[in-house]
Amino acid sequence: MPRMLVVTTVPSTTRGFLLPYAHHLRRSGWTVEAASGSEPALSEIEASFDAVWEVPWTRRLPDPANALQAPLRMRRLLLSGRYDVVHTHTPIASAITRAAVASLPRASRPAVVYTAHGFHFHPHGSRARNAAYAAVERLAGLATDRLVVINELDRDEALRRRIVPPERLVLMPGIGIDLDHYRATDELLAAAQDLRTRLGIGPDTPLVTVVAELVPRKNHRTLLEALAAAGPDLHACLVGEGPLRAELQDRAEQLGVASRTHLLGRLEDVRPAVLASTATVLPSWQEGLSRAVLESLALGVPVVGGRTRGITELVEPDGGVLVPPGDPPALARALATVGDLPRGPELRARLDTRLRRCSIEALLAAHDSLYADLLRQRARAVRT
Q1: Which keywords appear in this protein's UniProt record, sorted alphabetically (predicted)?
Q2: Which of 101, 8, 17, 22 is nearest to 58 (CA)?
Q3: Which of 76, 140, 284, 341 gives a 20 to 30 Å CA spacing to 351?
Q4: Are residues 201 and 172 in the same domain?
């Protein structure tokens, strides 16, 4: 029975995106364990894995735990776990894990897969920061058997910057979406109307929603500034939590749009909020391959997005409108047109091929093939 360790910096990443993979692999005969940092969500993922391990790393780059305690903990876990495959996600956990793998005796090293959910070097980053991130990825790439990228720009950048050799690079379109789950039903449409009623927003009032963590790279400030310029009727919902919540509330007050800005926090089910919207908005500086955009399009709700990596290839053509990130006037002009965009079953049908390529079924099959290839390589290495 093959053994896998799934690694993330925080367990909310595992809970939000990776549980279908754990369930599928365990049904297929794998033993699947998880390692992640300390968060309340750690206990929420326990039932989905054969074991869950806490690692003392954090999302703060200069944290001493990331340099001292976490590498030692990972090294001990890797030695005792005797894993065939270690699949890492998120930059800090992935860098520490790959360093720990490199420190093991060669005969004890598992095959390592790293999924880059959007490289931290990107066209809107500074030259110095991009160079530093790329250097770290190149170094960690030495201990990476397969680098999975989830958009074409990251594939091209990985090749150009020689992060790993071409034969170790794999392009997969995202991490998968359950298209049956994200289908507009009468029940969901009724829940969407109920949400509008609770917020005091009439059925014909334009409403845009952004589903994203409240962090700088999601660029909520541009949306608030565009909301102020777009006229007095437009409302915006912000779904998600994060360190910028208070700052965004203050900014909405300063711009005079607080009464039209609805911070809904983290929702267990975002579908009613998306369906309540005239369009969804994602003005991010960079993405991997946006799950929020895929969910919106699958529900038949058009997207106004930043023309950037991880958004452009999903929205263009026919999925909505793209604007330069960080350009409030351009975003305001786009928001003024959202009522004219195609939506509903017509939009979903138009994007059917694109959506099916990103379905969870397609991505599970792609990962099965990837893992089988790595197991065959390990078997050949043992024989020789």
Answers
A1: Glycosyltransferase, Transferase
A2: 8
A3: 284
A4: no
Do residues 257 and 231 make contact, with C-beta atoms less than 8 angstroms apart? no
113 and 251 part of one domain: no
Instruction: Looking at the structure, tell me whether residues 112 and 259 fall in a common domain.
Output: no
User: CB–CB of 94/14 below 8 Å?
Assistant: no
* Domain, as residue range, for 162: 3-176+359-383
For 106, what's the count of Cα atoms within 13 Å in the CB-facing half-sphere? 2
pLDDT tens digit string along 268-286? 999 999 999 999 999 999 8
Mean pLDDT of the chain: 94
**Residues contacting 186, CB < 8 A, separation 6+:** none
Q: Which secondary structure element, helix H or strand E, spans residue 105, and what is its range?
A: none
Q: β-strand 303-306 against 279-282: which pairing, if any?
A: parallel
SS3 readout for 212-240 = CCCCHHHCHHHHHHHHHHCCCCCEEEEEC
Q: How many domains does the chain have?
A: 2
| Eight-class DSSP state of 47 | G
- Kindly give, in sequence order, each residue whose CB lies less than 8 Å from that of residue 298, ignoring residues fewer than 6 positions away: 177, 179, 182, 183, 348, 355
- Judged on CB neighbours under 10 Å (0-12, 13-18, 19+), 241 is middle
Tell me, yes or no, whether 70 and 132 share the same domain: yes
pTM for the model stands at: 0.91
Any residues with CB less than 8 A from the CB of 57 and at least 6 apart, and which?
9, 37, 63, 65, 66, 69, 70, 92, 93, 96
pLDDT over 90 percentage in the chain? 84
Range list of β-strands (E), the chain: 3-7, 31-36, 51-54, 85-89, 111-116, 146-149, 169-171, 207-211, 235-239, 261-265, 279-282, 303-306, 320-323
Amino acid of residue 66: N
DSSP characters for 314-369? HHTTTSEEEE-TT-HHHHHHHHTTGGGS--THHHHHHTHHHHHHTBHHHHHHHHHH
* Total Cβ atoms within 10 A of residue 319: 26
Of the candidates 232, 343, 363, which has an alpha carbon nearest to the alpha carbon of residue 289?
363
In a domain, 181, yes or no: no
